[in-house]
């Protein structure tokens, strides 16, 4: 395995992207993901790869569209307001079946909000922030090492399904330092060829990259192809973590940084006799509805905890389908709930 | 002056008339014949005057004109 | 007459780099001539097999159908940024974007200026017909003062809508671009000039000289409410007064 380093979440995502074979990175500065951009600025040119600080987030995602069209692994990163600007490009990537990785180190919103950690972009990420019937795979890392692992997975899934993949992190994860063991670089030659890419039509018919067809029946067919792909992803790529759930009366449903905090809460609750477990979706789309529903059959309460007004809560309630109680506790504006505040919520629902 | 001729793809012609105006020899004119799209297509009204200069083809927005020119003896 | 053809040589035909697809443009529209010139240039330079073309949004949205080369259909205004991504990823490819005035000089202002300022080694074909053709003849950034459009029914009032923007001159203020020129198509001399300009722009890219921009004053007979011939006369007599022809930068 690779070397062990002490790195920030933002740096780990950047370094993992490099090791995943990201050949072109385009972004515009924004807090709290600037370290990611700066890491790429230092390292990509030395490796003979492309780093462009774009004129805007729209410029950056459009450059990603161009690079992805030629078949190279490519990424952009930003934080909430910048991700809003990228929605046009994400819709085009999805519509044109292009693989790309987009990192959102989420901050407080709406509007300018602030630069503190938040999970308030869950709807935008998982329900389609741009126009049209499309989906993107959304991965929610909970620790710094996992941010690295999921970044590599993101590139693999993007290529496998020709789809944009988002890493949905938050400001806490981006800024936090943890020891990580970085993987060996991917051998680019080992990756499957992309015979659909626009690389120059020498010796073959032209490859055309587009999300457009004037004919309703044709565009419907293009949409059906997308929907079929999404079904395949739902069937094959759901990822989640369940812990301390075997004997649990209550489980916390949480993703990302909050799931990590919830692990401490589980220990604290169990120390005082509350049988608490944790359900953590790793793929926020496709959401692990079935596993959560099965779990809901065995517990009394699924308590959703989020740094939002209750965005993932909607998916939890869809999954649980009234098989258990589904209370909610959330914080907004960049307030990070402490283990104790979450424990107090748990106590309210313990028998 | 070498002699020339043009071949107009009547189905590509949209009857815009730019070739007619561009011809220095006043060879071309509207034929009065409509193509399948309903356009009044251009044709050679005075073929004997054509010098194969290709001005018509350069001007044609639909690449509907091919131009031929007499081989000049060397 | 064609009976003589056997004794003649073909001196003008459809460029080999173009497909046989029929253009979707209105009668007399300049887009077809520009497309033909680009095809001829790809032929002459022998670069079609390594060219990647970018089709915009608007009447030329189907541009990906015209060329026998790889192509991308891209979002309105973003072609210069997308071209940046393509060229950086595949520096050996020849990349051109085909953009209208609304695309290049309005919604894509930031992308257009910054691709030029980075000196991206790409070729931009900037079709300036002073109007939004496909959406129904609305005001463009380049619409002339007093020109009637569907959103300036009484003519462009500069106190409300500003003046036509000479976008190539704006970009010509930058240090990076290699070649910036404005051409027209209203007679065969200008068509020859445009042909030479487009060829030079692609040659500069092949030679790695950097960013090139060919603005072409074009016609929109349908939305101008003019015949194709009147449209050409309008470009010659009126439009060139606002948008003068010629090279703005040539650092080759």
Summarize the structure.
With 74 residues, chain B is of the alpha+beta class.
Across the major sheet of chain C, the strand order is: 3-2-4-5-7-6-8
Q: What is the class of chain C in the CATH system?
A: Alpha Beta
CATH class category label of the largest domain in chain A: Alpha Beta
The CATH architecture name of chain C reads 3-Layer(aba) Sandwich
The most extensive interface, with participating residues per chain, is: A-C, 40 and 35 residues
- What portion of the residues of chain C fall into strands of 2 or more residues? 15-25%
Going across the major beta sheet of chain A, what is the strand order? Answer: 3-2-4-5-7-6-13
Summarize the helix and strand pattern of chain A as letters: EHEHEHEHHEHEHEHEEHEEHEEHEHEH
Low-confidence stretches of chain A: none
Residue-averaged pLDDT of chain A, rounded? 97
> What's the total count of β strands of chain C?
8
Sheet with the most strands, sense and barrel status of chain A: 7 strands, mixed
Examine the secondary-structure arrangement and name the CATH architecture of the largest domain in chain A. Answer: 3-Layer(aba) Sandwich
Which residue ranges of chain C are poorly predicted, with pLDDT under 50 across at least 5 consecutive positions? none
Which assembly state applies to the chains in this document?
Answer: heterotrimer
Structure class of chain A: alpha/beta
Taken together, the total number of domains of chain A comes to 2
Rg on CA atoms of chain C, Å: 18 Å
Instruction: Report how far the terminal alpha carbons of chain A are from each other.
Output: 46 Å
């Amino acid at each position: 395995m690779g070397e062990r380093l002490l790195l920030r979440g933002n740096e780990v995502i950047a370094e993992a992207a490099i090791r995943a074979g990201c050949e072109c990175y385009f972004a515009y500065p924004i807090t709290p993901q600037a370290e990611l951009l700066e890491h790429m600025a230092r390292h990509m040119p030395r490796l003979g790869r492309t780093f462009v600080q774009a004129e805007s987030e729209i410029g950056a995602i459009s450059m990603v569209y161009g690079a992805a069209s030629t078949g190279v692994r490519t990424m952009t990163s930003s934080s909430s307001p910048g991700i809003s600007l990228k929605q046009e490009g994400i819709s085009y990537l999805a519509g044109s079946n292009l693989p790309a990785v987009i990192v959102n180190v989420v901050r407080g919103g709406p509007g300018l909000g602030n630069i503190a950690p938040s999970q308030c972009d869950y709807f935008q990420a998982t329900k389609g922030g741009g126009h049209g019937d499309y989906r993107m795979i959304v991965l929610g890392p909970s620790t710094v090492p996992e941010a690295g692992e999921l970044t590599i997975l993101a590139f693999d899934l993007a290529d496998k399904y020709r789809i944009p993949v988002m890493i949905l992190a938050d400001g806490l994860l981006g800024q936090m330092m943890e020891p990580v063991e970085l993987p060996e670089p991917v051998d680019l030659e080992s990756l499957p060829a992309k015979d659909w890419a626009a690389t120059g039509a020498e010796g073959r018919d032209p490859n055309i990259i587009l999300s457009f067809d004037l004919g309703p029946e044709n565009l419907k067919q293009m949409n059906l192809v997308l929907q079929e792909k999404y079904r395949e992803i739902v069937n094959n790529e759901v990822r989640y973590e369940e812990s301390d759930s075997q004997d649990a009366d209550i489980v916390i449903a949480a993703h990302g940084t909050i799931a990590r905090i919830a692990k401490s809460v589980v220990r604290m609750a169990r120390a005082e006799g509350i049988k608490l477990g944790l359900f953590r979706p790793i793929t926020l789309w496709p959401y692990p509805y079935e596993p959560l529903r099965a779990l809901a059959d065995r517990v009394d309460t699924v308590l959703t905890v989020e740094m939002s007004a209750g965005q993932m809560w909607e998916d939890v309630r869809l999954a649980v389908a009234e098989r258990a109680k589904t209370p909610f506790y959330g914080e907004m504006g960049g307030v990070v709930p402490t283990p104790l505040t979450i424990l107090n919520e748990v106590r309210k629902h313990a028998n | 002056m070498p002699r020339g001729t043009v071949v107009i793809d009547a189905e590509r012609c949209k009857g815009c008339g730019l070739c007619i105006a561009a011809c220095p020899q006043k060879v071309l004119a509207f034929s009065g014949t409509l193509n399948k799209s309903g356009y009044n297509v251009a044709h050679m009204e005075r073929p004997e005057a054509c010098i194969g200069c290709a001005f018509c083809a350069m001007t044609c927005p639909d690449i509907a004109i091919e131009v031929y020119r007499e081989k000049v003896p060397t | 007459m064609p009976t003589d053809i056997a004794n003649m040589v073909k001196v003008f035909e459809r460029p080999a780099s173009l497909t046989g697809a029929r253009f979707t443009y209105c009668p007399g529209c300049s887009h077809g001539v520009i497309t033909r010139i680009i095809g001829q240039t790809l032929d002459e330079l022998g670069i079609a097999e390594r060219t990647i073309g970018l089709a915009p949004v608007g009447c030329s949205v189907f541009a990906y159908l015209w060329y026998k080369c790889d192509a991308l259909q891209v979002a309105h205004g973003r072609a210069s940024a997308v071209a940046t991504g393509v060229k950086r990823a595949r520096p050996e490819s020849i990349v051109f974007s085909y953009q209208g005035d609304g695309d290049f000089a309005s919604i894509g202002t930031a992308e257009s200026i910054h691709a030029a300022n980075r000196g991206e080694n790409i070729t931009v074909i900037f079709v300036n017909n002073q109007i939004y053709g496909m959406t129904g003849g609305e005001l463009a950034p380049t619409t002339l003062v007093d020109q009637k459009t569907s959103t300036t029914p009484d003519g462009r009032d500069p106190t409300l809508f500003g003046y036509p923007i000479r976008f190539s001159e704006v970009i010509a203020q930058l240090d990076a671009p290699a070649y910036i020129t404005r051409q027209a198509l209203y007679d065969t001399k200008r068509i020859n000039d445009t042909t030479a300009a487009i060829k030079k722009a692609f040659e500069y890219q092949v030679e790695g000289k950097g960013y090139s921009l060919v603005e072409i004053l074009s016609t929109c007979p349908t939305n101008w409410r003019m015949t194709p011939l009147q449209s050409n006369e309008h470009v010659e007599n009126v439009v060139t007064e606002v948008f003068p022809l010629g090279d703005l930068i040539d650092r080759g």
